[in-house]
Amino acid sequence: DSGVTQTPKHLITATGQRVTLRCSPRSGDLSVYWYQQSLDQGLQFLIQYYNGEERAKGNILERFSAQQFPDLHSELNLSSLELGDSALYFCASSVSAGVGQETQYFGPGTRLLVL
Amino acid sequence: AQTVTQSQPEMSVQEAETVTLSCTYDTSESDYYLFWYKQPPSRQMILVIRQEAYKQQNATENRFSVNFQKAAKSFSLKISDSQLGDAAMYFCAYWRSNYQLIWGAGTKLIIKP
Predict the structure, then answer these.
(1) What 3-state DSSP class applies to B89?
(2) Can you state the percent helix, strand and coil of chain A, rounding each to 5?
(3) Are B103 and B93 in contact (CB under 8 A)?
(4) Does residue A109 sit at the B interface (CB-CB below 8 Å)?
(5) Which of A99-108, B23-32, B55-64, B77-86 has the highest mean pLDDT?
(6) Cβ atoms within 10 A of the Cβ of A48, count?
(7) Residues 84-113 (B) with a CB less than 8 A from some CB of A
(8) Which of A11, A92, B17, B99 is the most buried (most CB within 10 A)?
């Protein structure tokens, strides 16, 4: 158990819908990262928040947005969902701003299926 | 652009033997970090080992070690005395200076009892 929690574990929805994925980082960690893993592929970095502020942005679609709240939990909002958005969405956290030597601890992921 | 390549989609090894997983990367940066992560069937991503590019000494963690060849931009993972619990997808990742982890496509490791 990494200490990072994600809810829900599974989500099934229809095209065009909007969903929210939630992540609680390890106690004391200030950074939260969101990744997308499509079937049998590597992870794609979406976005990082550090202490409430956006720190880095990867290949995140405009239909997707995220935020980190004062209690440091984060939410990833996915809207106008398409079949291709079906994937495993991981949240990770690290102690500080995310400098390379920091270990990122991963949550168990949320599996999203868009029908 | 930085890329990470894992050329072996799947590898198999007999239990108790040694296996090496390959990873190459492309970068123009001189200071960076490399990682190997393990993803068992549970899908949890677990850090296996980390290497700082400025360190010449290869990182080791118990049965796991790396062969880091900076000039060749190669970062292979050696697993000694393979165990059934080592069966998983293994991902190589590169940390770039704008705070992104770039991931390879993964290698599926099968352990034969």
Answers:
(1) strand
(2) 5, 50, 45
(3) yes
(4) yes
(5) B77-86
(6) 28
(7) 91, 93, 95, 97-106
(8) A92
B18 at A interface, C-beta within 8 A = no
A97 Cα to chain B: minimum distance (Å)? 8
CA separation for the pair B51, B36 (Å, rounded): 9
Contacts of A105 in chain B (CB under 8 A): 47
Q: Which of residues 31-50 of A touch B (CB under 8 A)?
A: 33, 40-45, 48
In percent, the amount of chain B with pLDDT more than 70 equals 96
What pLDDT band is residue A40 in, cutting at 50, 70 and 90? low
B73 touches chain A (CB under 8 A): no
The two tokens of residue A24 are 């609680």
Range with the poorest average pLDDT among B68-72, B94-98, B104-108: B94-98
Q: Are A55 and A31 in contact (CB under 8 A)?
A: yes
Chain B hits for A108, CB-CB cut-off 8 Å, are 42-44
Angstrom distance (rounded) from CA B60 to CA B64: 6
Whether residue A49 has pLDDT greater than 70: yes
